[in-house]
Records
---
Amino acid sequence: MAPHDHHDPAALRAGFLAGLPTLFGIAAWGMVVGVAMVKSGLTLAQACGMTLLVFGGSSQLAALPLIAAAAPVWVIFATALVVNLRFVIFSALLAPHFMHLPWPKRLLYGYISGDLSTALFLQRFPDYAPAPGKLSYMQGLMIPNWCAWQTGSLAGIFLGSAVPTAWGLGFAGTLAILCIMIPLVANGAALCGVLVAAVVAIGAHALPYKLGLLLAVLLGMLSAMAVEETQAWWSKRHG
Amino acid sequence: MAEWEIWAVIGLLALSTVVTRSTFWMVGHKVTIPPRMLEVLRYAPACALAAIVGPDLVLDGGEQLQLTVANPKLLAGLVALAFYLWRRNMLLTILVGMLAFTLLRVFHVFGAGG
């Protein structure tokens, strides 16, 4: 362990305080996913296993309607990978800060690095130079984040099983996905891709094995790229 | 789905978390993503989420297209969309969307069934 990685209580506390305002939101979001899991028909044990092992709200929410529709296992896996692709980009930014750690720790910290912890860490430490307290600061962000998520999620699982299905609480999961999606629509090209993906998914919903979903993602991405290319070509010609 | 299949799905979902979040922590600088590839990757998650939300809002349980005001999910979804664009707050959006959904459904506004 490098000297600047020694336990640093001040940095740990600073990380905790930076993440504190987000913890309530994380717990509530975990609760929504917890309710959605139970309301989509998972048993108590399955829902608890899912939250404790998967630890990924968007991929869990994406998988639930597919599980309910008995989609093939590989389609669900492929969908989860696509939904999680943003983490590849986040981890490419975050990982270089900690490459000196032994691999089991890197595996663990990568696994528990959520969207918000990553964003807050990169705000505090924008460059890769070794700095004292980096590791403690990250732990101060990630560990409370994990605890808040799991607490909220387990509360949602038990709340969800106490509330009648007729209340339609599962719809909160759909609304949550909507809220994660909107900030990802960063420009016109992405908007076009999102609209194409939604329309194709609706039109192709009757395709076997839920393949309409993967087709929709593919065509949405291609249209976003096409719009981007056209814009680049246009501004080159007229700029 | 059989019990074991659901556990298999849970295992694979956990794998998808580890693969996407930890790969760069494991391989580090040995692999760099070409910029073009990063651009394509950037669009994928939003498209995947849209492909889940879209059918959820406009198809009813019987897989029939419901593009009318009598569809409480569609209306509540649009309310939530507008509210999120206005306030940019996820929790409030979920609360407002659920409130709209419940009111439309329970009071049969626009002939919405529940």
---
Amino acid sequence: MTAFRMKRRHFLLATLAVISEKRIAGAEPRRFRVAFANLNEEPGTRIDGLGFTGAEIRRSFELASRSLPLDMIYYDNGGDAEKAVGNAREAVSSKVDLLIEYNSDAKANAEIGRHLKTAGIPLLAVNYSIPGAPLYTADNIAAGRIAGEALGKFAKENWPDQTPVAAILGDVSDLGAAVTARIQGLTEGLRQELSDLSPVQLDSAGHSVRAGSVLAKFLVTQTRRKILVATLDDASALAAKSAVETAGRMSDCVIVSQGADRSIHGGASEKKEIDPANRGSVILGSVAYFFDRYGYEILPIALRMLRGEQVPPQTFTKHVLISAKNVFVEYPPVDMN
Amino acid sequence: MKYGAIIGIAVSALALFGTFGVANAQSDCKTLVKPSPFGPDDQIGATNRITPAVTKAAAAEIQTGAVVSMAYNLVDGVPLFGTRFTKTILTTASLVPGAEYGKNRLTYMEDTYLSQSHVGTHIDGLGHIGIMDCYYNQTPMGKFVTQNYLKKLGLENLKTFATRGVIIDMVKVFQDAGKLKTNPACRTPCLDGGTVITDADIQAGLKMYNVTLREGDALFVHTGWGDLFNQFPAQNANYNKSEPGISKAAAQWLADQKVVLVGTDTWAVEVIPSEDAMEAFPVHAILLTDNGIHIIENVRTDLIAAEAASSKRATFFLSMTVPKTVGTTGTFVNIEAIR
């Protein structure tokens, strides 16, 4: 090959490379159609024992999908197994590229799993496992443990010479796996710090007003003791705080909650219980479950699946204790004063 | 004397403690904020780019002399961010019969204006936004704040804004792309709250009127959201709850074009809720803190957008002056587009 030919060949190759690069750079990324079947969007219905609503979860998907090459389709399972199966069938008929399924009924989930497998559509499960599908889930034991440890550490640092009592307050009779796991984690966390502690369970039957009265009665039986209160949701924590204040036991009690929903923390102007300016509250904090960020966590996993990448069989929420010290870091306000 | 000495020692100790407190709070600003391209002592930011040549070139935009207002009236009741407030008090004492001055019976009136500075159509100065205690040009602001004002990066440092203005009609861009999702509370088409404006959208808006951004330009984006501002106080809550706005990538693209300011008919210029739920006002940090580019909020863009649509010309001479209020982080401004 002559020098001229070589130069010409190099020139042609370089030109082709530039053209193909430009084509790649200018190409729109492939868009995918992703369906999200939500657990329950019935107004007022709380999700998985915490203070979040289905609407908040859905909104997080709407916001997170803005910057992703995804066209979203939404279904509401309405807390109904039959409806969930119907929605999954509709998603298959609509030829979605992937279905994200948030449904609590194991039998229906198994059916949905079979149906999607037959259709060759990938499936991503949320909080309730589906055979063969990757799972994004809250780590209820870990979340409970964070709260238990926080209470135990507070007692060791602030009441080193006393043996406190501990109470788990909320819908303790809920036989769901999530609540059971949270109670297990709470107990483990407390015992990790204070090995002799056996928390009593105070049942509110899921009613926050009742949580306050149940705790008030308990406080009367523990007049000389320091009390660590672990609540199973934020509404119960706020009711517990009122009961503690009414009983004049603010210096004897501390509360750590589960959920960190919007009822307990707010923005810079929207003052709520967990706030940088309220560091002396008897509510030390609430363990975040970030249901209102599910879209931001789950859609990137879905996108990886759609691009043929391996994803872990289970991805857990990174729970943190939201307190006055970090609430604005974890939940940046959009109002500044 | 003895007590005076004790008090003196106590005050000195407190002052020392306070100094140490501030010193301890300081961060390594070189790792958190970009250096200014205008040198380590720069406090001017992007207005450095408005050279006499830039102003002269911008003056060529004045073809008819028509002036288009780009500011809202500032009056009690307009949407205010967070717990901000405005209140005017009129002093009329000399109007009382017998309180006139001199044989010519002169009277006078004046106002007391109680307000935060970031209200209405206003400019965000370089002392407004930082990452921890690090502000524009890697300035460790802990050393430069007093109870009353900034000792660095105050508005008095800014140069002129006599430059070319460019309006992008993002409503038209989204309409043309078939992706406009309006908000039902808007009486005229608007981008809905939470709509992300990308750098591709901005480029499409420039292309619509065949504009190429020049170094030193002032860029304004019409989103239609300002219609909610205009409906005050009825839509104040809606206006402040969210907004359409530019993405982080779009902000970086604009910084790369070396514009001097970005203004919109929204209260924060950037998309709210943010693209990343864990970040607070990232576009503010990109524009102000890292690049010294000013942000103008609550700009009245509908009139100039309509003018651009009818004349097919999206550029104008920008008339905007900023009071030399020493050590302030922002102030309300009046803006006019001269055509």
---
Amino acid sequence: MKVLITGVSGKLGRLVAKTLVEKGHRVIGIDQRPWPDAPKGVRVIAADIRKRPAEDVFRTQRPDSVIHMATVTHLTTRMSEERQRINLGGTRSVFEHCHNYGVEHVIFVGRHTYYGAGPDSALYHTEDEPPTGIMTYPELSDLVAADLYAGSALWRYPELKTAVLRMVYTLGPLKHGTFAGFMRGPRVPTVLGYDPLFQFMHEYDVAQAIALAHEARLNGVYNVAGPQPVPLSLAIDVTGRKRVPLPEPLLSTMLGRFGLPDLPKGAISHVKYPIVVDARPFCEATGFVPTYDEIQTMEAFRWS
Amino acid sequence: MNLLIDEDIMERVLRIELPFNRYGMDPYGVSQEHLGVVFSLLGFLYKHYFDVKCYGVENVPARGRAMLVGNHSGGVAVDGAMVLTSMLMESEPPRLAQGMADKFLNRLPGVSQWANRVGQFTGLPEHAARLLEDDRLLMVFPEGARGTAKLYPERNSLVRFGTGFVRLALATKSPIVPFAFIGGGEAIPTIHNSKWLGKLVGAPYVPLTPYLLPLPRPVACQIYYGKPMVFEGDGNEDDDVINDYVAQIQDYIAELIELGLSRRNSLDAPFQLPEAR
């Protein structure tokens, strides 16, 4: 089968491409960033998903399915117009091309931060919940909008099978993703008096889960998670970092300085309160079972 | 932290039947180590400070889902803490009861962290339903914050019960174990609830006592666990039906309170728990 992956040159995009090639698919990648040593079976085309050349790829290549991974994460980058254009404008273009050029199945790789974190939010979110975190964290809005827009394809283009995946944080040897970025340094800041659960899965398992969603021709909105969540303090200890608990007012002034990661203001609620999702429907629909448990995942991140 | 952990308590904590991982964490972030610290303190209060006596613990199922439902009294939840402790100390195997905490607690630094690590989550319907479906033991005070607001003279009365807990018990097919807690109102004799102070610390109110601070006095307390009550239905019944179930539970708890009060000066005398109707 011919699979088109947008954002293929990212760490996770490459892993998904390799996984699909191993399963016998042909992969076409679109990315502005290069992937010089792309393996056999993967063809990378340099293009911006919002521009004409990307549409030409859809027209000339006629992919059977599309995996849309070209979205920019939020926790470590600040709100910008450019980012909003990529996340929302890019997602719109991808879905329109899918519809116009006869794609059968599209997967939107979204994030579980859709649900937001706050004192009143429940553990183990289910797919039917609205994005309550958006009021306290405007930097999240473009990703939430992209998620909802992707979901609207379910009624807008009923002939196009659409899977919206709300994936938990990734962790592992590639050090890919928001949470890995937050945990990069030797010292990790926490908010004094708060120790939220963090839910993450190994990068390898993320790629497997996306490949399984592709195989199952998944249609609908699904949370994707692997092993159980753990408190931030435990994640910091097991990955060999040092906890730096700071009172909240002090923390907001120290972020981005003294070797601490930089976070937008609203992100503080994500280090105070947990975002944990219930992924049982996804596991039932695809037969996904994580290979790495939470401890192996943290250790893989530590020793790489 | 090990200095704060009592060995006998820790032995019981380790026998709680929950899916703990290699680091002693369950999927909700309940931590064996934190349970050890908290219950070492509460266990001391249970045995030596309040001298809690617990009756009818055999009425609480040893395994599987169930809902403990009882009366609230005393400005801070001494009753809740002692019921949790009784489930650890008296139940065989030890069980972790999980309360439904008032929303403001999760906003307070420190409190948020510790409450979550020992399985006391914000009182959301989603939490309650999920814990029951996971076959856990839920502790519910249907009087809510109205219950802890009782002043000293009202300490053994019951105020209006919420009804959501009955619908939830029906929907999840969970037995309800009614209980009476005697002594909470004496431990913290509230004379006034200060909303103004509450605003200051981020709580609905702060109870004031004759000696000002809401610190519990060393009062002997008793817990009576009644016979489990199981109702027919799926949780979508009319309000009349639900209100009738709630009234039955409320009446039964009132009976248990009466029994408890009549026995306060003769704790060694034999007695029989009333039958649930």
---
Amino acid sequence: MRGHGKGIVVRDVWCVFEHVSGRKVEALREVSLEIPPGQFICIVGRSGHGKSTFLRALGGLNPLTRGEVFVDGVPVLGPSAERGMVFQDETVFPWMGVRTNVEFGLRAQGMSAAERARIARDWLRRVDLLDFAESWPRELSGGMRRRVALATVFAGGAPILLMDEPFGALDYVTRLSLHRLLLDLWRNTGRTIVFVTHDIEEALILADRILVIMEGRVIDDLPVTLPRPRDEEVRARPEAVGMVKTIMHHLGLDSLAAEGPEHAPELLASR
Amino acid sequence: MQPSLARSRAETAETAGTAVSAGNFPSSSHPRWRRLDPMPALGVLATIGLWYVASWLIGRYMPPPHEVFANAARNLFASDHFVGLGLPEGGYLPHLLYTSMTVVLGVSIGIGLGCLFGLLSARWSVVDQITEPIVATFGTVPILVAAPFFLIWFGLVASAQLILVAFYTTVVIHIYSLQAVRNVHPKYVEYARTLGADSGTIFLRVVLPGAVPEIAGGVRVAFAASWGLAAIAELLGSRYGVGYAILTFESVYDLASIMTIILLLGLIALIMDWLIGRVRARITRWAESAAT
């Protein structure tokens, strides 16, 4: 199980929530797609349009109103160690030391203490936190805590990793270094990664494929064929710029960029 | 005297805040004496000053500070005066020890039972539904109103005060621990589940540690209230303890001794509170922002 990603099949998934007021909200509508093993897939969309709901559906954390999710042909019925999750906050347990955090998944799976320590050490080395193994999470910076979270989910051995805007709250430079680290870990382990972000540039740096979700539907599915590493030069290529424009258009943000200033008052008025 | 939800929320917010905020390193270490704040000392001096003024105004019903301090020094470990009043040998000490034992034992029992019921309620909603009305009733009725009943029911076995303190603490800790568990962010539980933890592991290694700081806050509240509770319950009927000594002094208008024993009990309460603070800081050192 360790070392290889698994494929995901999503078939006609609907998630309908009922508000306290009785109003029904269709957070996901007829979502169907296939994610091959080892793919790095980014999901972009405006907030409140179903990105996180989709990720939680893959994780088995949300009940589906209709449809099914399969991992290697087996239906997903609830959360499991096969699909590790990284959240924006609460990515580490503050009451456990760094090493204990990284060992948490291994311990839950019943691994012996010696084996746990060996694997945790290995992953702490890979995220360059070996010197902080005995620190408390509060003693680390936000970026270091994200590295602890990455070490924890990778060490846990899940073939599929689900990440919900894990670097959202970080500064630009820290985010760039975490992108590099995450891509390294991904390349060396071949895990399947589904990564939710509101940042189009982040998606362009990371993804093999970008899904655009609006109003609960997947409205576009774009393969990213740009060569890696996707530094600024690569991102300035016409095909990359075109892709950003397409996504901006989907998100309803194109009027500002593409159309002339004569449209701006109209846009402001319509808001 | 009752813990308010607002307080427990504030506690959680405080600990969560320190846990999440980045780079909370303790500032460069100054010598301890430099960090000593002169304000509390000023407060103590002001209190003593006001006490002198009150004593001068009220007269013999308000003994001045130096008389009380002298009384404490004279009678702390032995007092012929007290023996003359029919009290046991040993000055103030046996009364203070008795009441302290009542509080420590009662609160300890209450912490155990309160955690048990609170955590069971958090885990199984059936338990919560059954205990809710009981806790709601005793959580809102001032416990001292119930004190006479405890004395009538349990007075004969000389442990009415103990049971009263234990009961009060159970209610407080039940409320705090239940709320503490509910305040543990659900994302932690989800995170643990996606790492493969079963519900037993999640309860022991995620929910419980996450709830500890807030439960510790409840312990502090229970302790603080229990000193007065035990002493007043002794006033209502006991043959031992600080309350009983106060009753005896009152019968001969020995106001200096009453004030002395109250101050001594307050001093013990302060020391206990400090100790609990230390233990709490030790247990929740993952959440504390700097050494205290």
